[in-house]
Amino acid sequence: MSRFPVALLLVCSVAAAEPLPDAAGLNKLAAQYAPVELRLDLAKLPANELAALTRLVQAAEVIDGIFLQQDWAGNEALLLRLSADKSPEGQARLRYFLVQKGPWDRQKDYQPFLANVPAHPPEANFYPSSSTKEEVEKWIATLSGPEKEGAMGFYSVIRKTSDGKFRYIPYNVEYQNELERAARLLEEAAGLTQQPSLKKFLSARAAAFRSNEYVESDVAWMELDASIEPTIGPYETYEDQWFGYKAAFEAVIALRDDAETAKLSRFAAELQGLEDALPIDPKQRNPKLGALAPIRVVNQLYATGDAGHAVKSVAYNLPNDERVTREHGSKRIMLKNLQEAKFKMILVPIARAALAAADQKNVDFDAFFTFVLMHELMHGLGPHDIQVGGQKITARQALKETASAIEEAKADVAGMWAMQRLVEKGTLPKAMEKTMYVTYLAGAFRTLRFGTSDAHGKGMAVQLNYLLDHGGVTVGKDGAFAVDAAKMKEGLTGLTHDLMTLEATGDHDGAKKLLETQGVVRPEVQKLLGRLKAVPVDIDPVPVTAQGLLQK
Ligand code: ZN
What integer pLDDT is reported at residue 265 of this predicted model? Predict the structure, then answer.
């Protein structure tokens, strides 16, 4: 573990250390995650589908073990030790370890909360712990062709051989035993289900676990349309904080919400019309949007691995592999029961603390849910493929390190802009005009509580400051925030224009300046965030129904 001389490491950790929390402190930390029981009605599932679902929940357990290994080599041994300690202190340590999936607090810049663990390794367990980022970078630079692709790819780890040379090891070798177990469970589920697209995905995914070739099964996942909606495999690369190359394993086992999925599909018909009306230079609009990516509204039964720690996603777009998305786009999954839980446990209490009395009662789940959907849809609208100095390039490439924050803020404000248009058109109910802005504002504070170090937080600070400057959001003498609907509408349109124009022109300097000057928490907002301390940071789903299946 010593990438630094030991003496230096000690000095660093002493300088940065807060005292480790005791049992009461750990319970307090855990209490920031409000327990919510996930109970789903399985009565409508035929016996064979229920049996398939049980196999998938079991496979998700296997995935959890792989994720622990990926994140830190010491995780599994530590978890065993913690599980064996039945004292109240031991149970408190275990509980918070399970929330964080590791001994570091993800909400506190990865500070350790347990004794005798090293500083959090930013390279996770994807790269040799005895090497530096520069050494790995240098080695990758010497490679070419398939070797380079393998080393930089999503589905391999980098290790050192006994002679000190680097090599990459594909996931199907590195996690061979676990992936074989997961593959068998998926195959059993494939044999049980009568739903063709589910059968196809599960068979293809099992094959991918063995071959390390994920493209075909990613495509099958895109086409999956069944009452059971599993997301299972290596996906996001956030855990690789050196290069963002390596995909962490996760599983989300869910059931499709048919009524909501049907309701949302009608928005699909609106997208080209929205693109054609975007508040940007008409030349920058896309005259022909690609085929609409599928959207699924689901209720989560069980989530593990990278999908099961600290702050939970309420919606996600996958896959990330460009070999798939170039041709097939990506699929959007919305976790409705998690959204309802977060709305109730977090957004409503935030609204109570933050908003003027008249606005509080208008905070509404339907507006919240529609906004999350619109955010997801708006990632597909606006400028993506652009030209800078005659060169074809993507907005993401041109905006470099600012791209994520700009794109997240764009998806938010354009989502609000789109909702407003759909209200005017009658596609959304007129009543939403009353609820959407205040709900959005309460949501802004929810995001800002996590700070401005990540793309969502920074992007949200830009939005809030813009709206404060343009009068869409006001602060009363008592510190309560209020909304001016007419100015809000103008402000959201103006900021949609500004952000999309930065993307259309690939204006990296402009984006950087905007984030530096506006991506900050102002004193009046900071004061409010101080008042939100008692509101849970997130939910801690208790998978009651899934546990019932595992015990059968
Ligand atoms: Zn987003």
Answer: 75
> What span, in angstroms and rounded, lies between the C-alpha atoms of 206 and 183?
4
The tens digit of pLDDT for each residue in 212-228 reads: 999 999 999 999 999 99
Task: Tell me the CA–centroid distance for residue 316 and ligand 1, in Å.
Answer: 8
**How far is Cα 404 from Cα 138, in angstroms, rounded to an integer?**
27
Sign of CA dihedral 189, 194, 195, 197: positive
Contact of 365 with 336, CB cutoff 8 Å: no
How far is Cα 378 from Cα 370, in angstroms, rounded to an integer?
12
Q: How are beta strands 391-394 and 473-475 bridged, if at all?
A: unpaired
Q: According to the 3-state scheme, what is the secondary structure of 474-524? A: EECCCCCEEECHHHHHHHHHHHHHHHHHHHHHCCHHHHHHHHHHHCCCCHH
Q: How far is the CA of 259 from the centre of ligand 1 (A)?
A: 24
* Assigned token pair, 380: 């597909």
**Which domains can be identified in the chain, with CATH numbers?**
1-31+73-120 (no CATH), 38-67+122-256+294-336 (3.30.540.30), 262-289+355-521 (no CATH)
Provide the terminal-to-terminal Cα distance of the chain, rounded to the nearest Å. Answer: 41
Residues of the chain with pLDDT under 70: 1-17, 292
| β-pair type (228-234, 166-170) | unpaired
**How close is the Cα of 169 to the center of ligand 1, in Å?**
32
Q: Considering only CA atoms, which of 374, 367, 385, 447 is closest in space to residue 411?
A: 374
CB 331 within 8 A of CB 70: no
User: Contact, 510 vs 502, CB < 8 A?
Assistant: yes
By C-alpha distance, which of 303, 270, 316, 309 is closest to 289?
270
Q: What's the 442 CA to ligand 1 centre distance in angstroms?
A: 17
- CA–CA separation, 110 vs 309, rounded Å? 13
Task: Give the per-residue pLDDT at 425.
Answer: 95
Q: How far is the CA of 21 from the centre of ligand 1 (A)?
A: 34
Q: What is the rounded CA–CA span in Å between residue 382 and residue 377?
A: 11
Q: What is the pTM of this model?
A: 0.83
Strands, E assignment, 98-155: 104-105, 111-112
- Residue 15's pLDDT is 41
How far apart are alpha carbons 162 and 178 in whole angstroms? Answer: 25
Q: How far is the CA of 335 from the centre of ligand 1 (A)?
A: 14
